[in-house]
């Protein structure tokens, strides 16, 4: 029933039901006030959104009624309608003044510049930002586990990338560092691990944070010699970071690798081999 009412309200305003619900939720989150009304915070979500949706409709209608009662000049009505377009999210259309008024021309230039800016943000910037948030670990800026799965699917469609090297990296003693020095310091150690990896790999190599202290590097067209050289560079970078940062305890990682030789072989097997290789090396140290 609520869905039908919200759809009807949305049609009256001229927005999608999803857009209206989003606006209603935002209005509620920012204090639940519109036209002097307040919504109790202990209500369930559906009544809150129904109330807020009605408030939006009333606010839109109220402005239209006032403009008619007060006999707004036509120019004012055009500007008011343009503002309502922005509020409702219908900002893609560019408008031209209805006469040769220089003042209106300036105002509509501003409206059109705003529309162009919003359209650019929504079509270019926002999708890239959403993609970034979906695929990146916010702390280290490494790719996350979700993008690892996407990248595996991508690689599996192109034999030219094979064999793919899989380096498994585990930061040593993260729990100990967090307990001794706090999570903020632990976070610094983690970001330095990714810094060491990035300084030791190519742009075509992808770095993923797959757990709290676990990282994976995928290296296209790799062999054992290439992977050994990368790991050696990472160890040297770690030593350099310890000298510069004077970490106590020092930053330390354990690493192992495997070769994902063909897309016909499940990636999970190559990952397990790299993980086992890392644990064997850790026991030897």
Automatic annotation (TrEMBL):
Pfam families: GGDEF. Its EC number is 2.7.7.65. Residues 162-285 form the GGDEF domain. SMART domains: GGDEF. Coiled coil: none annotated. It comes from the Bacteria. It catalyses: 2 GTP = 3',3'-c-di-GMP + 2 diphosphate. InterPro entries: Diguanylate_Cyclase (IPR050469), GGDEF_dom (IPR000160), Nucleotide_cyclase (IPR029787), Rev_trsase/Diguanyl_cyclase (IPR043128). This is diguanylate cyclase. It comes from Desulfurobacterium pacificum.
């Amino acid at each position: 029933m609520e869905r039908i009412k919200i759809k009807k309200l949305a049609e009256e305003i001229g927005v999608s039901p999803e857009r209206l619900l989003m606006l209603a939720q935002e209005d509620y989150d920012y204090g639940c006030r519109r036209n002097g009304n307040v919504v109790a915070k202990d209500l369930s979500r559906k009544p809150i959104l129904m109330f807020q949706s009605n408030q939006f409709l009333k606010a839109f209608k109220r402005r239209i009624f006032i403009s008619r009662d007060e006999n707004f000049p036509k120019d004012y009505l055009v500007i008011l309608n343009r503002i309502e377009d922005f509020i409702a999210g219908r900002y893609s259309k560019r408008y031209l003044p209805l006469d040769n008024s220089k003042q209106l021309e300036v105002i509509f230039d501003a409206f059109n510049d705003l529309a162009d800016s919003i359209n650019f943000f929504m079509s270019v910037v926002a999708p890239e930002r959403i993609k970034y948030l979906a695929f990146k670990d916010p702390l280290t800026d490494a790719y996350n586990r979700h993008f690892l799965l996407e990248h595996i699917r991508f690689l599996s469609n192109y034999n030219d990338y094979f064999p793919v090297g899989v380096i498994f990296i585990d930061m040593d003693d993260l729990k100990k560092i967090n307990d001794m020095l706090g999570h903020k310091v632990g976070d610094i150690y983690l970001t330095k691990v990714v810094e060491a990896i990035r300084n030791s790999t190519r742009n075509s190599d992808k770095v993923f944070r797959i757990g709290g202290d676990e990282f994976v590097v995928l290296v296209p067209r790799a062999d054992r010699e290439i992977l050994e050289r990368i790991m050696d560079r990472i160890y040297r970078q770690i030593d350099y970071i310890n000298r510069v940062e004077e970490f106590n305890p020092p930053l330390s990682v354990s690493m192992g690798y495997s070769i994902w030789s063909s897309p016909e072989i499940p990636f999970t097997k190559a990952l397990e081999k790299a993980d086992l290789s890392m644990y064997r090396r850790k026991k030897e140290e």
